[in-house]
Amino acid sequence: MTAFELDALLRQEADAFSGQCAYLVADAREPAPLHARLENEVFPAASTIKTPILLAALEQVRQGRLTLKDHLPVPQSSILPDTQVFDRGQSEYTLEELLYWMVTLSDNTATNVILDTLGLDAVNEYCAVNLGLSGTVCQRKMLDFAAAGAGKDNLTTAADQRKLFCLLHSSAILNPDLRRVALSILSRQRHQDTLLRYIPDEVVFAHKTGGLDGVAHDCGLFLSLKRPLFVGVFTWNGPSPDGDPGQRKFIGRLGKAIFDYYKEM
């Protein structure tokens, strides 16, 4: 398959998808994308908003306002019913543990505790000023249905997701130790049923998934290829309710085609 044929395949798959689809593939070291569709379209971020939250928290660590070993309270009243972690009666966790669970299991309780610590305004200022993101905003905590009903949603774009991951790969943000912490956490992502769904190879993929009703995303950096490759596929207004694998299978098909082409490049 040639790059032109891969581009045609991605466009054909996206055109046939019964919802909205954006994708972006780029060498993390280069300004021009290799493949892109609707890269600046704003859509619901779902749990991909947790990557800029992770980086905003680590920036607070860099500035000395927090440390990774700080213990943060997790009161019973803050524990959401969907948690897979905070069900053992433990009342506080280190910031590092909370960041790990926020990303690797996409735990909403951990996310909300971190948001309470940072504040929404600080996260949004970090996204706009430090990361230079133009379409990403965190307007509510996780599972805040009242805020969602009032029209407040967490939003992002494919271009913004690419930018924050590529900044993380470079030396432009945080410091070397904290960039390693971020990439380590993202590389231990436990949700592997989207871009990695049909890839049998052993890979290092620092990434974050996201899902809501009709929304499924996956994006991040393949760090075990010959070049550091950002891959992001984002779907919204789609046919699959949250928990149904339909949209994740679609993302998996695109991920397999992209990976198979670029693993030899």
Highlighted features:
17% strand; 5-stranded antiparallel β-sheet; alpha+beta; 265 residues; 9 strands; two-stranded antiparallel sheet
Distance between the termini: 12 Å
With strands numbered from the N-terminus, the spatial order across the biggest sheet is 2-1-9-8-7
The share of residues in helices is 25-40%
Tell me the strand percentage band. 15-25%
Quaternary organization: single chain
The biggest beta sheet, please? 5 strands, antiparallel
Describe the structure.
The chain is of the alpha+beta class and about 260 residues long. It has helices at about 5-15, 50-60, 95-105, 110-120, 120-130, 145-150, 160-170, 175-185, 245-260, and strands spanning about 20-25, 35, 45, 70-75, 90-95, 155, 205-210, 215-220, 230-235. The strands form three sheets. Strands 2-1-9-8-7 form a five-stranded antiparallel β-sheet, with helices on both faces. A two-stranded antiparallel ribbon has the order 3-6. Helix 2 packs across helix 5 (about 120-130).
